[in-house]
Specification:
Radius of gyration: 22 Å
Shape: globular
Order of helices and strands: HEEEEEEEEEEEEEEEEEEEEEEEEEEEE
Distance between the termini: 5 Å
Helix content: under 10%
Strand order of the largest sheet: 2-1-28-27
Largest sheet: 4 strands, antiparallel
Number of helices: 1
Oligomer: single chain
Structural class: mainly beta
Strand content: 35-45%
Length: 406
């Protein structure tokens, strides 16, 4: 629930001391005003917006404690809140682990700790959230496979976990894992990062795209299949805006709204109307209206600026949302709605948000990963409960996590 909009019940003319909100949220106004004064200042834009609660919910497979609900044996088939805190700002559901950032900038992890992927300086597997160190300047985390990557508010990039193909980007031996965060280089210009299968892709604030790790199938986009143990720029363009890594393939969107994919082409996952692999970025069609893309396990999904939803690749579990199980080698629209806002592709399932705050899932239903209070697979979108306050979501291997806001 949101905090009271007008602190102090608005009982007198005692002027409040206003602390401006940050990024349109928060702020404070100790003291009280009359209702007319409060409304007048709100109209003028000088009254801070209410602080919104941000609750974390999770569901699906509990193996390794990845749900953070203090259990490794009880799966959940409907959204279950992780603790009672209301200060979560971002979450990433990985293969068998989960990472999340709070509004105070602290980083928390839980689940499978093999290879040190949780960053807790051990290989333990906690089944409830544990803080990574004591820092309060974490901004974004991406958990995938046996490694994790995160960006701090100062623009530095950090990785930890398995390093068998150099995917930590630290130019160290491919046999050297890390069980606590280690900085990648010394740059302070990292903007976005996403982990794939034994590889990582990231974008800098200057719009350049960088990848490293396993190069098989051309998944790094360097026009070869060479492994890289430190970040290498993909081409020379400075117009990349968003990237997503998945199983043996990557996808990225440019500032001009074009969509590009590369890597393994099996099942048509690259969207080029064939199953050909590519070792450098190739444009998907000629449209300039793509706004967000997510790479799952052998398939991809994306949203356009007009609010339409598209998917392609492997469809054995109905994960493409076409009400069938037919693979697609080029983007196919999911229904006819124009109210989709974002998507997260997991392992054989998809989670997507609409502009009305509702959350929808489809694909493989085992372990209850779809959140429909059953284990039924779905080949077209089905709403998760009745809430209209879903804000961010992440689909993992056998589980799904999402944050509500309001």
């Amino acid at each position: 629930m949101a905090v009271q909009k007008y602190p102090g019940r608005v009982l007198s003319k005692t002027p409040p001391t206003i602390t401006p909100p940050v990024d349109g949220e928060g702020g404070s106004a100790p003291g009280v005003w009359t209702l007319s004064e409060a409304l007048e200042n709100e109209k003028a834009g000088t009254w801070p917006k209410p602080v919104l609660d941000k609750e974390l919910y999770i569901w699906g497979e509990s193996n390794n404690g990845r749900l953070g609900l203090n259990s490794t044996v009880i799966d959940r088939s409907s959204p279950t809140q992780v603790g009672a805190l209301t200060t979560w700002s971002q979450v990433s559901a990985g293969t068998s682990q989960t990472g999340a950032v709070k509004t105070d900038g602290t980083l928390w992890v839980w689940g499978n700790g093999n290879a040190g992927r949780l960053g807790l300086n051990s290989t333990s597997s906690p089944s409830s959230p544990v803080q990574v160190g004591s820092l309060t300047n974490w901004n974004f985390v991406s958990a995938y496979g046996s490694e994790t990557a995160a960006i701090k508010t100062d623009g530095t990039l950090w990785t930890w976990g398995r390093n068998n193909t150099g995917q930590l980007g630290q130019n160290i031996s491919a046999t050297t894992d890390r069980s606590s965060p280690v900085q990648v280089g010394s740059l302070t210009t990292w903007y976005q990062v996403d982990g794939g299968e034994n590889c990582i892709a990231a974008i800098k604030t200057d719009g350049t795209l960088w990848t490293w790790g396993e190069g098989s199938n051309g998944r790094l986009g360097h026009n070869n299949t060479t492994n890289r143990s430190s970040p290498v720029q993909v081409g020379s363009l400075t117009t990349w805006s968003q990237v997503s890594g998945g199983q043996a393939a990557c996808a990225a969107i440019k500032t001009d709204g074009t969509l590009w994919t590369w890597g393994y082409g099996g099942y048509g996952r690259l969207g080029h109307n064939n199953i050909i692999s590519h070792s450098s970025p190739v444009q998907v069609g000629s449209l300039t209206t793509w706004s967000q893309v997510s790479v799952g396990t052998q398939f991809m999904a994306a949203v356009k600026t007009d609010g339409t939803f598209w998917a392609w690749g492997k469809n054995n579990r109905g994960q493409l949302g076409q009400n069938d199980t037919t693979n697609q080698s080029s983007p196919v629209q999911v229904g006819a709605l124009t109210t989709w806002s974002s998507v997260s592709a997991g392992n054989s399932h998809i989670g997507a948000l609409k502009t009305d705050g509702t959350f929808w899932t489809w694909g493989f239903g085992n372990y209850g990963r779809l959140g429909h209070n059953n284990l039924i697979s779905r080949s077209s979108p089905v709403q998760v409960g009745a809430l209209t306050t879903w804000w961010k979501a992440s689909a993992g291997n056998g589980h799904t996590a999402a944050i509500t806001k309001g």
